[in-house]
C-alpha cells in the first residue's frame, strides 16, 4: 500500500463543523402542512412557513437551547457459556426534545399548562386574562420544527429537525426570581405520524450546503424541467407574440425553450418554478412546449394554437 501522511489519514475538514449561532422553534397544529422543500431556486432561499400553519415560539434561553435525546431500547439474546450476548436487537428508538422558551404568550402558556387557550379572551375593560390548569389533562399533539442557523449570506446553512407529531411529556420548574426572566421549560416526545411515516426528519438546506455536498459525502441529482400548466390558460394565437407564463419545476439554468420545434421569441426565468416566454408563430393545432436546462429537455407539454 502507498505511504500516506497524517493529514491524508485524518482528512480533517473544518468547513464541515457546524455551530448553532442562532435558531428558532416553530409550532403548528396537526393540520399544519410540512412542506416537501424548505428552500427554493438556485439561491436556495428559505421560504416562509406562516402560510403552512406554523408560528414562532419566540426567544429561547441561551443556556437551555433545544436539546435532542435519543433513547434506544435493545433486547439481548443470552447464550449458555458465551461471554457476551451473541445477538442484540434494537426494539425501539425514541427522541425527546427539550427547550426553554422565554416569551409569555398564548402558545407557550398552552404548552406549559397543558390546556387549550384558543377560546380564552381578555376582559374588554381591564384586558385581564384568566385560565386554570386542567383538572383532567389530555394528550395534545402538535407539529414542531426546530432549526439552527450557521453562517451568513451565501454561506448560510440551516439544520432542521421536524417533529410531525409531538406531545409535551414533561415541564420543568418555573422560578420567579429577580435574577432571571420567566421561562417555560418543556420536553416534547416525538411520535410517529401515521400518514407521514416518521417521528423525526432531518433537513440540511440553505445556500451554503451546495459547495459542501461532496465533502459531506452526498451528491445532488440533477433534474430536467417539468411543465405542469401555463397562464393564461387556453389556446394561443397562431400569430405568436403572446406573453405566456409556464409553471412547473427545475426551470433554473434554462438554456432553450421551443414551441412546436420553433424557439420562443424570448424567455425570462422568474424563479425555479416559473418561466415567462414570448410565443413564436405556429400553425393552428396542437404543439409541444419543451424547456431545456443543462441536464436535458423536459417532457413535451401540449398547447393549442388557434
Automatic annotation (TrEMBL):
InterPro entries, per the entry: Bxb1_TTP-like, Ig-like_fold, Ig_E-set, IPT_dom
Span of domain IPT/TIG: 225-305
SUPFAM superfamilies: E set domains
Protein name: IPT/TIG domain-containing protein
Taxonomic source organism: Nocardia rhizosphaerae
Amino acid at each position: 500500500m502507498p505511504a500516506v501522511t497524517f493529514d491524508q489519514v485524518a482528512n480533517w475538514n473544518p468547513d464541515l463543523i457546524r455551530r448553532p449561532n442562532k435558531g428558532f422553534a416553530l409550532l403548528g397544529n396537526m393540520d399544519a402542512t410540512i412542506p416537501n422543500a424548505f428552500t427554493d431556486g438556485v439561491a436556495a432561499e428559505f421560504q416562509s412557513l406562516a402560510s403552512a400553519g406554523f408560528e414562532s415560539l419566540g426567544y429561547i434561553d441561551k443556556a437551555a437551547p433545544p436539546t435532542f435525546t435519543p433513547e434506544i431500547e435493545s433486547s439481548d439474546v443470552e447464550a449458555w457459556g458465551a461471554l457476551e450476548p451473541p445477538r442484540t436487537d434494537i426494539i425501539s428508538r425514541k427522541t425527546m426534545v427539550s427547550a426553554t422558551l422565554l416569551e409569555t404568550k398564548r402558545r407557550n402558556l398552552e404548552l406549559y399548562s397543558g390546556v387549550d387557550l384558543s377560546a380564552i379572551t381578555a376582559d374588554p375593560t381591564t384586558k385581564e386574562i384568566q385560565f386554570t390548569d386542567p383538572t383532567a389533562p389530555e394528550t395534545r399533539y402538535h407539529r414542531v420544527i426546530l432549526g439552527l442557523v450557521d453562517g451568513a449570506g451565501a454561506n448560510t446553512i440551516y439544520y432542521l429537525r421536524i417533529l410531525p407529531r409531538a406531545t409535551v411529556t414533561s415541564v420543568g420548574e418555573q422560578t420567579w426570581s429577580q435574577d432571571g426572566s420567566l421561562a417555560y421549560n418543556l420536553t416534547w416526545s416525538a411520535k410517529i405520524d401515521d400518514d407521514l411515516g416518521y417521528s423525526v426528519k432531518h433537513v440540511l438546506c440553505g445556500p451554503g450546503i451546495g459547495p459542501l455536498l461532496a465533502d459531506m459525502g452526498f451528491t445532488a441529482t440533477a433534474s430536467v424541467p417539468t411543465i405542469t400548466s401555463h397562464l393564461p390558460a387556453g389556446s394561443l394565437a397562431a400569430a405568436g407574440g403572446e406573453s405566456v407564463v409556464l409553471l412547473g419545476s427545475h426551470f433554473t439554468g434554462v438554456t432553450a425553450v421551443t414551441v412546436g420545434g420553433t424557439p420562443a421569441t424570448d424567455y425570462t426565468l422568474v424563479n425555479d418554478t416559473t418561466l415567462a416566454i414570448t410565443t413564436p408563430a405556429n400553425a393552428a393545432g396542437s404543439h409541444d412546449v419543451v424547456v431545456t436546462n443543462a441536464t436535458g429537455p423536459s417532457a413535451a407539454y401540449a398547447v393549442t394554437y388557434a
